[in-house]
Amino acid sequence: MEFSSKLLENAVNEVSRLPGIGKRTALRLVLHLLRQPSDHTKFLSEALLHLRNDIKTCSKCHNISDTALCDICINTKRNSEIVCVVEDIRDVMAIESTSQFNGLYHVLGGKISPIEGVGPQDLQIDSLVNKVESGEIKELIFALSSTMEGDTTNFYIFKQIEKFRIATSTIARGISVGDELEYADEVTLGRSIVNRIPFEQSIRS
Amino acid sequence: MEFSSKLLENAVNEVSRLPGIGKRTALRLVLHLLRQPSDHTKFLSEALLHLRNDIKTCSKCHNISDTALCDICINTKRNSEIVCVVEDIRDVMAIESTSQFNGLYHVLGGKISPIEGVGPQDLQIDSLVNKVESGEIKELIFALSSTMEGDTTNFYIFKQIEKFRIATSTIARGISVGDELEYADEVTLGRSIVNRIPFEQSIRS
Known about the structure:
homodimer; Helicase, Ruva Protein, domain 3; Dna Topoisomerase Vi A Subunit, Chain: A, domain 2; 2 domains; two-stranded antiparallel sheet
């Protein structure tokens, strides 16, 4: 791509470093900004800079937060004895939007993945084990992705906390609500039969 | 979408104002920036601000430029008597990348579109007519999109400059190189038969 302006080239290069954005998309976005009032670009740049420089992570659950402790952890109405272990902040947002969980979270910051060079020491596992050891947690819910890396991480954490004898569970895997059986993959369908639930329980939830 | 941080929410909102970027994509991009060194965000923000505040448009062709006259207009090796009329800077880049055009450009900044409220006065048409009137141009090539708006704009400009009796042409419409005939639409195929070119000419180009 040949640019008539160094400023334009520079902006396109920086934007195209974002994941999933190629040079053409970057050019489209940058030209859009040029057509908008310059305030738009100012607000965008400032929002990104403020976020990057001033953001904190909650010292208790490692969720992204503006304060030292996040809104969820300081909420006394929530049950602090049940902790849901998730990969990252997007999972917290997804579970929060269901309004079905009233406990606290523990954000690992990823999952164990030897291929991507992520080991247990790169994740917030030690602080989770410490929390369990201190006796403040009664139940741990594993809510990681249903992938090999997710299962590995679940198992690694389980092995570390097994000796403390607290309740552990994983979120249910099964056929998505609204899905046709014939299009479900065999593993999911198989698991959903093995882990079937009493019919009376299913109509209540 | 519920955010645990105002800074995060603000950044996601600003990013999602960009065209084709929804809240989820914006969140993915913003979280990516948080995982990168803070220099990345700094360079991105600065590049966008510099572009928006310091960019100029070439006073001759209205192309985006770092200087008062763009690199193409000040290049004395180019034929300033042939001017290619295009919609926007992306078309300049597309034609430049073919290395098949040695003249200058005239960037209209859009096309006449009553539906979007774009009239002739919103485009760089007057300055084009002035250029033609001054006698510095021998040939005008219309290279606008082959849409109703593009054709309307072509025709509007043609009517304005008709009296000055300079050569005018439009870029050829036809079957794309590498395309199968059976999948071409009727209008394109029809035009490509009406505007057929001598075989000898086709094998030379």
